[in-house]
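Thread amino acids onto this structure.
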């Protein structure tokens, strides 16, 4: 089957690429490959669970429509080892350096005598607090993602990061831990927020179609999608409490009201029709019809909740 012709999505066979090295960061099995003709590099992540591939690709397509700087993702497979997954391109140029958020959090939380932690960049999950991340964005990184234009009302690292947190609330991304955001240091020493990356743990990708059907058809309010989407947890903390994805956005948006308004306008422009058509366009060989129906409802529920609750909070403040 000509996957690209029939689906409109690019498909990369990593068996045609040259192996470079394994990726050490993260818990998932990943490896770098290179197209020897074009010299392009790709990081291949094979599916550990069914659905990780479509979740990453759908998140990428949604990010593009929201003008959120995002790493490029493509469907992929390993013909030799009979695996499916995705590939992503590096978010930094060859002469740039990518630094993960845990390094800055270690520096922000470092106490006397903790040099060993600083060297290994060990940081507790609960130390990723909203105020620490805001301080890092404002005083350390400062600059918008490299090679992405400023947007009306959205110009700084913090302005763009608030867009990432809004995006997490929309797609129910539960994996924005301190190694899933980063900054890029250019060869001139300028720091830029990295484009967002790693969104596979979103949109309830790992539910079975049986559970999706139950939630779509249940008369029990506790089982319904409208209730289910409210449970998604972020990796951000406030007052020693782990925030839900919506709560994280509600907390961050207070630090940049102009950028928040601009991001909400972009979310409003992402109409239900656009979302429905985008989900519908996903390849059925990677995403079943039941999954498409459920995911569309999940995204529409989150979109409505964000717009309605934030506007209510803004009006009452």
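Threaded sequence (317 positions):
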């Amino acid at each position: 089957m000509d996957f690209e012709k029939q689906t409109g999505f690019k498909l990369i066979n990593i068996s045609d690429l040259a192996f470079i090295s394994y990726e050490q960061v993260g818990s998932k099995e990943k490896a770098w490959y290179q197209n020897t003709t074009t010299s392009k590099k790709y990081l291949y992540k094979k599916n550990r669970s069914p659905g990780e591939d479509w979740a990453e690709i759908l998140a990428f397509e949604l990010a593009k429509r929201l003008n959120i700087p995002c790493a490029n993702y493509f469907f992929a497979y390993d013909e030799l080892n009979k695996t499916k997954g995705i590939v992503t391109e590096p978010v930094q140029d060859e002469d740039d350096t990518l630094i993960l958020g845990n390094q800055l959090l270690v520096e922000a939380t470092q106490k006397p005598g903790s040099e060993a932690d600083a060297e290994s960049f060990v940081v507790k999950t609960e130390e990723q607090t909203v105020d620490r991340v805001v301080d890092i964005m404002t005083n350390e990184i400062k600059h918008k993602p490299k090679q992405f234009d400023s947007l009306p009302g959205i110009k700084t690292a913090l302005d763009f990061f608030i867009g990432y947190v809004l995006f997490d609330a929309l797609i129910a991304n539960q994996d924005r831990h301190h190694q899933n955001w980063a900054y890029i240091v250019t060869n001139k020493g300028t720091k830029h927020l990295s484009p967002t990356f790693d969104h596979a743990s979103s949109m309830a990708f790992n539910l079975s179609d049986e559970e999706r059907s139950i939630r779509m058809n249940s008369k029990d309010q506790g089982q319904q999608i409208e209730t289910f989407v409210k449970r998604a947890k972020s990796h951000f903390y406030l007052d020693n409490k782990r925030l839900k994805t919506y709560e994280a956005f509600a907390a961050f948006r207070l630090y940049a009201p102009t950028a928040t308004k601009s991001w909400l306008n972009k979310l409003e422009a992402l109409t239900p029709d656009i979302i429905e058509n985008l989900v519908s366009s996903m390849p059925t060989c990677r995403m079943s019809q039941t999954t498409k129906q459920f995911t569309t409802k999940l995204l529409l529920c989150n979109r409505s909740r964000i717009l309605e609750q934030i506007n209510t909070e803004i009006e009452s403040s």
